[in-house]
Amino acid sequence: MQLSLIKHQGCATPFLRHLLDFRVYQTRQRSQCCKIACTVIRHRWMKRAPVFCTHNTTNKMISTQADKENIDMSKFPVERIRNFSIIAHIDHGKSTLADRLLELTGAIATTDKNKQVLDKLQVERERGITVKAQTASLFYKYQGQTYLLNLIDTPGHVDFSYEVSRSISACQGVLLIVDANQGIQAQTVANFYLAFEAQLTIIPVINKIDLKNADPERVEKQIEKVFDIPTEECIRISAKLGTNVEQVLQEVVKRLPPPTFKKEDPFKALVFDSNFDHYRGVVANIALFGGYLSKGDRIISAYLGKSYEVNELGLLRPDEHPTDRLYAGQVGYVIAGMKEVKEAQIGDTLYHQKHLVEALPGFKPAKAMVFAGMYPMDQSDYSALRSAVEKLTLNDSSVTVQRDSSLALGAGWRLGFLGLLHMEVFNQRLEQEYNASVIVTAPTVPYKAILSSAKLIKEHGKEEITIVNPAQFPDRSVVKEYLEPMVMGTIITPDDYIGKIMSICLNRRAVQKNMVYIDDHRVMMKYLFPLNEIVVDFYDLLKSMSSGYASFDYEDAGYQPAHVIKMDILLNGKPVEELTTIVHKDRAYSAGKAMCERLQDAIPRQMFEIAVQAAIGSKVIARETIKAYKKNVLAKCDNGPKHTSRLCKGYLTKKESDGVLHQMTRPPQSPDLNPIEMVWDELDRKVKKKQPTSVQHMWELLQDCWKSIPVRR
């Protein structure tokens, strides 16, 4: 009766609002074989009220009818396995295509929220780039047979090219993605030659054909001219809309060759990636090059010779799906109770305890291009930071680590990276994944020196040494010559910006080696650069000069003799080791001047004067001075020179008044007169005579006294 009355009146009482106070939750329930999206309705404050649950959608995690625990990997012989990577320049749509392939094969549900599914790191989500290669196994039915497709999504930036080279070693083919709008870029060329040198089958895919300015015909001609791949082999797709993505899977099955390994051979696997789990230890990603591996088997690491028992193994789809066995040609993960970070080396070979095999060649060690010192904010965090660095370098094996120490910053490490972005991402991952606070010094490049001193040659054991820390740069008197690292840079740009880019390159001491038109409007230029000239700001300058259209990539080109010198930074005459840099002789003054000016702005003022100097040996080439804080005795002046009010009232001593009068711009007096005494006496006489009533009147008297003093002729 009461409820009907309330409804009839069209109003809501507080009692009714509390009675009908329900909350709706959207949750996801995960079972062994699927993910279920649920809508849960429950009362906000009545604990005994019933809870309503509705199942909305079910996201099957595998595309076959078998549960993930019951996937029989023996049903996939080598002839029905395809291992391939997706390679491309940055922002050409690799991760988007990987999302569509996962949706098409049923590995994930088809929703609008699937964006960069394989990019699992927080830094990848924030920056919108791929920095870590990720693996996913797909089941695809083609002409009545189910194929196992092992996909590896790779980074596109030049700083993470080592991830691409490691991924290629576990594949028999690649998908080369090219943007239909931008065309071939610098990293596209570099990745193509990585796959070409590994003798992999290359399938060119032209992406983003849905864009308004897309020109796939022009891109096909570029591919044919630069890579010598016929235009008929190119596949035109739109990964965003899903156009022709099915054709990509069909061509993968038809064109790519299966692995050439056999199940009957002894078990042999290559560790091509790994990460550390706090509860399960090291999780290693492996590619089987022969035989099979079962749960409970005893395996041996060829690198350390230690024996382990396989606790878990399976596929990545892209989440971990345990299986009972993995066979030759397949790619998966294995957990074998490796508790120490050093036990899982990327490039290691695993084999059965009873069947000794020849170790695989592994990977060529990554060559660090940029070095920087890393120190904990607080030395009490040194042990925790050491553990974090070890675990992170397990996941990123391209980083080189060398222990170092500094008088100002304490104990730390000298880390080597593949580039500046690589260094920034590594530092960001330390902060996000391990909550570490670190101090990173300015990046430097490795130099070499050919020694002339017999004592130093005996000390180092060789004539040629490598210097990664500028503070250890040897003096010119003991060195025959210095060598600086060189890189072969590839620049692809529209021809409208050729003049600007050539002037930038010449200013960076670059030598032009080649220039080729890849189509009517785009040019590919090759320059030999000193690495020190491009490592910091060259890429940003190139992008700004070309309105963002130019792309840049580089590769190692050895060392060349150079006139480089060590520049020290002095603070009040004392050298600061952490600020020492190595510069070319022609750029020493400009670099020293710029460094002193930046330090002048960055260092806070003190109660004493600070001299900031750039020096080469004992010669100072640039200097800036940070003025000291000091008491301003003229700060409280009302009119005219400051502090006149205190002077008028007789509060200042003769010593203080000397400082006040010194501030007044008056020509110097003759040496036989004392102007201060004369002004003081004259002012005292006039004050007693006229008795001023205001500060302005007092100031006028002071001016008269000052003007009455004779000037030196």
From TrEMBL:
A cellular component term, taken from the record's GO annotations: mitochondrial matrix
- Which parts of the sequence bind GTP? 88-95, 153-157, 207-210
Q: Name one GO molecular function term.
A: GTPase activity
Q: Which reaction does it catalyse?
A: GTP + H2O = GDP + phosphate + H(+)
Predominant localisation class: mitochondrion
| The protein, known as | Tr-type G domain-containing protein
Stored PANTHER family: TRANSLATION FACTOR GUF1, MITOCHONDRIAL, TRANSLATION FACTOR GUF1-RELATED
In this protein, which residues make up the domain named Tr-type G? 79-260
UniProt keyword terms in alphabetical order: GTP-binding, Hydrolase, Membrane, Mitochondrion, Mitochondrion inner membrane, Nucleotide-binding, Protein biosynthesis
Q: How is it placed in the membrane, per its record?
A: Peripheral membrane protein
Query: Superkingdom of this entry's organism?
Result: Eukaryota
Q: What does this protein do?
A: Promotes mitochondrial protein synthesis. May act as a fidelity factor of the translation reaction, by catalyzing a one-codon backward translocation of tRNAs on improperly translocated ribosomes. Binds to mitochondrial ribosomes in a GTP-dependent manner.
The family this protein is said to belong to: Belongs to the GTP-binding elongation factor family. LepA subfamily.
Q: Where in the cell is it found?
A: Mitochondrion inner membrane
